Amino acid sequence: MVACAARKEGPALVIPMLFVVAVVAAIAALQVRDLLAAAALLSVFSFVVALLYAALGAVDVGLNEAVLGAGVTGVLLVVALFHTRRRSGD
Amino acid sequence: MKALALLALGALGLVLLAAGAGLPVFGDPNAPAARHVSDDYLRGSMVDAHTPNVVTTMIADYRSFDTLGETMVVFAAGLACMLLLRLPERGRIPTIGRPKGNVITDVVTRAMIPVIQLFALYVVFHGHYSPGGGFQGGALIAASILLARMVLGFERSQYLFPTRLGTPLGLLGIAVFAGVGLEALPFGGNLLDYSRLPLGLPSDMLRNWGILFVEIGVALAVTGTLVSIFDDLTTGGR
Which chain B residues have any C-beta within 8 angstroms of a chain A C-beta? Predict the structure, then answer.
C-alpha cells in the first residue's frame, strides 16, 4: 500500500519538472543561432517528452518518441545541416 | 509585426489554458474518451488475441487498417525524399566526407551495434507482452545502422546494410503486412482478419501470430525507409 502511494506521488512531482525542462528546451531551440545546437536541443526536448509519456503511463508512445524523436530525427536534422549553412539567419 | 505575433500567441495560450481547465482529470475512468470502446478493448485483448499488451492489440489487430496506412505513409515519405534528393544535375548534393576514424569511437560503435540490434529484436518480438512493437524495433535497427554510417563511414558500413537494399526492404515490409491482411480474404474473412489464417490454431492464437507477422512487416518497412532517407541525404543516391 505504501509502495503504491509512493508510486503515485513520484510522477506527480516529476511531471511538472519535466514540463518545465521541455518548455525551456523548446524555447532555447528557437532562440539559439547555431542550428547544430538547435538540433541537439530538439533531441533534448524529444527525450524529455518521451520521459513525460512514460511518467503518464503511455510507455509504448514514450519508447517511440525516444527512438524516433530523440534518436533518428536528431541525426537526420544534423545530416540535413550539411546541405545548408550552420548559422541561422533569423 | 513581432509584437503582433506575440500578442496573438499570448491570446491563444490563454484560450488553451482556459479550455484545459475543463478537461477531465488524468486517469479519470469516466472521461468521455474512455467510455465508448476502450472498455471492449481492455476486456477483449486477452480473450480475442491472447495479448496482454492492449496497445499492441489495438495497433496491430483492432485498428490494423490504420497501421497499414501509416506504414505506407512512412514508405511514401522515403520515396518523396528519394525524388527530392536523387537529382542528377541540379546543384550536386555535396557528398559528406569520410570520418577521420578514431579507435575509441570505432571500437565503441562496433561493440554497441549488436547490443542495439538484439534489443531491437526483443522489442519487435516481445511487443505482445512489453512496450514496443514494429515501429520502435524497426527504428532501433535503423538507428544502429545510422550509427555505423556516421562513425565508420559510408563505405565501411556497407557490409552491415548495403544502400541499394533500403527501398526494396521497405517495400518487402509493406508486402508482408498487406499479404497477411489479404491472406484472410480467400478463406472467407475480412481484410486483416487474422483469425482466418490457415495455420490450424485456435482463433485467439491465430490473431496473436497475425500480430507478430504484422509487427515484423512494420519493422522491415521502417528500417528500410529510415536508412534509405539517411543515405539519400548523405550521398544523394550515389
Answer: 26-27, 53, 55-56, 93-94, 96, 123, 131-133, 135-136, 139-140, 142-143, 146, 150, 226, 229-230, 233-234
DSSP summary character for residue B198: S
The 3-state secondary structure of A1-49 reads CHHHHHHHHHHHHHHHHHHHHHHHHHHHHHHCCEHHHHHHHHHHHHHHH
Amino acid at A53: Y
d(CA A64, nearest CA chain B) in Å:
5
Among candidates A59, A76, A83 on the partner chain, residue whose Cβ is nearest the Cβ of B230: A76
Domain limits at A36?
2-81
Question: How far A23 CA sits from the closest chain B CA (Å)?
Answer: 13
Residue spans of chain B under pLDDT 50: none
Domain assignment present for residue A88? The answer is no
pLDDT for A43-66, tens place per residue? 999 999 999 999 888 899 999 999
pLDDT(A80) > 50: yes
Cβ atoms of B111 and B144 within 8 Å: the answer is no
Is A76 domain-assigned?
yes
Rounded distance, CA A54 to CA A74, Å? 20
pTM of the predicted structure, to 2 decimals: 0.88
